[in-house]
């Protein structure tokens, strides 16, 4: 489908959730966007309200009413849309993709519903049998820094998960250049704030209950997503922490013999020197420096003697881990630079 740069008509399904609301805010001030429909489930508690009733900080900025998404709505309105964003639970996204693909609309799915290529992994890691296994092969895994070319010409984009985004930004420069020791494991330790668990009330993620703890060890759905992206075995240790937003992934891996610290520095520089949203920090990254921003902050240290590399990346889970990354994907699909519209309120610090 040919997409014009101007006057793009969009819908955000899941606009009452954390990732969806963040996306609505970004799209509202994106110069290429003409209109944004806000959709929620048929049983949503926000039906009858507008966006700024639920998120009062956007009063006067986005006062659009929520609508219920169902087959009737899709049949009546999808033809008028250029783009739909799905910020919905994984299984709901699969069902919505099935319905929206009957119309000519480009789909950006923020859930994990189309990130994995092997359908059987959905039974194992997501707890449901995938209803569109053949479509998994068509979906582009939308990492803006690594898949810019594939993103230019696809109608289904699987926006990467939050933990995989931070881990893969640290890992891909190494694995894509085959600098890692293929006989040893890659270990990712991730820590996320509570907004990673979504807006739905849940005792385990309510403020008084949360204390720093590992969870879903050896069974988190992001483990196969990371392994698929680097074509190597990854062990992923997720942790939940008592802060609102932000995510840090620290990765440890063994490097091949004969690789020097200068080689490691060079692959990072080559990968990201033209990517203003990726910032190399002089010291270990901090979550407070990226919350509310589209940046990923990276720092690494390589011990040549032990051949051990430790790389750490901090992002905002709702921005670079979800909404701003989806906008980067949209920008590339439109033929714009990936950071278009995302840097107007923040300072840029290029990697030089
Ligand atoms: N939170 C995060 O850090 C990240 C989240 N994501 C992914 O984004 C998606 C949304 O996450 P998040 O915003 O945290 O979740 P929330 O629980 O905060 O929001 C979920 C949204 O989906 C809507 N929804 C639920 N079921 C349906 C349905 N059957 N049809 C249409 N809409 C539905 C909800 O609306 P209502 O209940 O009002 O109907 C709500 O707007 C998930 O797939 C998640 O994995 C990705 C990266 C990071
Ligand atoms: C703290 C917390 O619960 N985080 C979520 C991950 C965030 C998310 O929604 O996952 P996606 O990036 O795959 O969409 C989790 O561990 O399931």
Automatic annotation (TrEMBL):
GO terms for biological process: L-arginine biosynthetic process. Residues 9-154 form the Semialdehyde dehydrogenase NAD-binding domain. It is an enzyme of class 1 (oxidoreductase). The keyword Amino-acid biosynthesis applies. It catalyses: N-acetyl-L-glutamate 5-semialdehyde + phosphate + NADP(+) = N-acetyl-L-glutamyl 5-phosphate + NADPH + H(+). Its EC number is 1.2.1.38. The active site is at 162. Pfam families: Semialdhyde_dh, Semialdhyde_dhC_1. Its main location: cytoplasm. Keywords: Amino-acid biosynthesis, Arginine biosynthesis, Cytoplasm, NADP, Oxidoreductase. One of its GO terms (molecular function) is N-acetyl-gamma-glutamyl-phosphate reductase activity. SMART domains: Semialdhyde_dh. GO terms for cellular component: cytoplasm. The keyword Transmembrane helix does not apply. It is found in: Cytoplasm. InterPro entries: AGPR, AGPR_AS, AGPR_dimerisation_dom, AGPR_type-1, NAD(P)-bd_dom_sf, Semialdehyde_DH_NAD-bd. Catalyzes the NADPH-dependent reduction of N-acetyl-5-glutamyl phosphate to yield N-acetyl-L-glutamate 5-semialdehyde. PANTHER family: N-ACETYL-GAMMA-GLUTAMYL-PHOSPHATE REDUCTASE, CHLOROPLASTIC-RELATED, N-ACETYL-GAMMA-GLUTAMYL-PHOSPHATE REDUCTASE, CHLOROPLASTIC-RELATED-RELATED. Belongs to the NAGSA dehydrogenase family. Type 1 subfamily. This is N-acetyl-gamma-glutamyl-phosphate reductase. It comes from Parashewanella curva.
């Amino acid at each position: 489908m040919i997409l014009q740069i101007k006057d793009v008509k969009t819908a955000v399904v899941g606009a009452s959730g954390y990732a969806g609301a963040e996306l609505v805010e970004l799209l509202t001030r994106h110069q290429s966007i003409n209109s944004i429909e806000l959709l929620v489930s048929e049983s949503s508690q926000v039906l009858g309200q507008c966006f700024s009733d639920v998120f009062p900080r956007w009063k006067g900025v986005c006062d659009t009413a929520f609508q219920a998404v169902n087959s009737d709505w899709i049949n009546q309105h999808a033809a008028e849309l250029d783009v739909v964003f799905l910020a919905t639970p994984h299984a709901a996204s699969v069902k919505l993709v099935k319905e929206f693909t009957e119309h000519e609309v480009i789909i950006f799915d923020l859930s994990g519903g189309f990130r994995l290529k092997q359908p059987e992994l959905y039974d194992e890691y997501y707890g449901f049998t995938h209803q569109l296994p053949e479509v998994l092969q068509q979906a582009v895994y939308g990492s803006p820094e690594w898949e810019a070319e594939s993103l230019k010409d696809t109608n289904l984009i699987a926006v990467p998960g939050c933990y995989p985004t931070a881990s893969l930004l640290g890992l891909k420069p190494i694995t894509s250049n085959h600098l890692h020791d293929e006989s040893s494991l890659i270990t990712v330790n991730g820590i996320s704030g509570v907004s990673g668990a979504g807006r739905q009330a849940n005792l385990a993620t309510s403020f008084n209950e949360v204390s720093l703890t590992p969870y879903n060890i050896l069974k988190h759905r992001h483990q196969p997503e990371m392994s698929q992206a680097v074509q190597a075995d990854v062990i992923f240790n997720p942790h939940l922490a008592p802060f609102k937003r932000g995510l840090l992934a620290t990765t440890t891996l063994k490097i091949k013999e004969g690789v020097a610290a200068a080689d490691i520095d060079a692959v990072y520089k080559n990968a990201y020197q033209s990517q203003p949203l990726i910032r190399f920090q002089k010291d270990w990254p901090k979550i407070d420096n990226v919350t509310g921003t589209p940046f990923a902050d990276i720092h690494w240290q390589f011990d040549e003697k032990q051949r051990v590399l430790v790389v750490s990346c901090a992002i905002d889970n709702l921005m670079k881990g979800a909404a701003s990354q989806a906008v980067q994907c949209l920008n590339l699909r439109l033929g714009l630079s990936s950071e278009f519209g995302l840097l107007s309120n923040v300072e840029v610090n290029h990697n030089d």
